[in-house]
Amino acid sequence: MKTKFLTASMIAAALAAGFAAAPAMAQPGPYTVYAPPAPRQGQTPGIDNAQQAVSDRIQQGLQSGRITPSEARTLYRRDRDIQNREAAYKSDGRVTPQERQQLRADMANLSAEVERAIANNRYTPVAQQDGRLGAIDSQEFAINQRIDEGVRSHRLSLQEAGRLQAREQAIERREAAYRSDGVVTPQERRQLRAELTALRDEVERMINPRG
Fold it and tell me: Which uninterrupted H or E stretch holds 33?
């Protein structure tokens, strides 16, 4: 438990590191004061670093089984919502102090939610047998993660990511409908896997176009 809280503190430190301006340092001479350069108005390097730290933490939780695939999907969607808000703030070429503060608060809340998910004592075995609903959940998560990576690497636009995510959510709703009677038939599992495979292939084509 101490390790989890220590990790949370480290992520919080990453959030603060990019935003707190260092004190101005007086140099020789009675009137000259030098300060470190501030981030450009349209740049948010500290927020970007914090987003990467949170994404890595989600991945660690998933690999250890402490975060379930469905929890990871929800957390990545929240992360993408913050990215969308950040892009909207940057659209006019500048990010105001108030907007930076809002983004920092959003990331701090998301970081705390990730740590709660890791500490909630729900555990999912990392290895799942093929054909179980857990494998479908894992495939859905992997697609969400690739979309997120595509946005971060600028290989997917926010509009493209939104369309891909909408398709994934439609498949997720169909999965929920199949589960509603308590029985998911082999045919329904095959249908879900086929749709997810097609979506995964589309994501990869968009991230890594040929020619």
Answer: strand 33-34
Between β-strands 25-26 and 33-34, what pairing exists: parallel, antiparallel or unpaired? antiparallel
Rg over alpha carbons for the chain, rounded to the nearest Å, is 21
Amino acid at 69: P
How many Cβ atoms are within 10 Å of 149's Cβ, its own excluded? 14
* C-alpha distances in Å from residue 1, one per residue of 8, 20, 54, 115: 11, 28, 18, 11
In single-letter form, the type of residue at position 202 comes to E
Mean pLDDT over all residues of the chain? 76
Task: Answer whether 106's CB lies under 8 Å from 82's CB.
Answer: yes
134 vs 158: CA distance, rounded Å: 28
**Entry pTM:** 0.52
**Residue 196, SS3 per DSSP:** helix
Residue 9 corresponds to which amino acid?
S
Note whether 83 and 154 are within 8 A (CB): no
DSSP 36: P
pLDDT 10s digits, 68-83 = 777 887 888 888 888 8
154 Rama sector, left if φ>0, alpha if ψ -120 to 50, beta otherwise: left
What is residue 65's three-state secondary structure? coil
Residue found under tokens 């969607």:
77
Per-residue model confidence (pLDDT) at position 43: 66
**Tokens encoding 68:** 């379930």
- For residue 89 the two structure tokens come to 């703030």
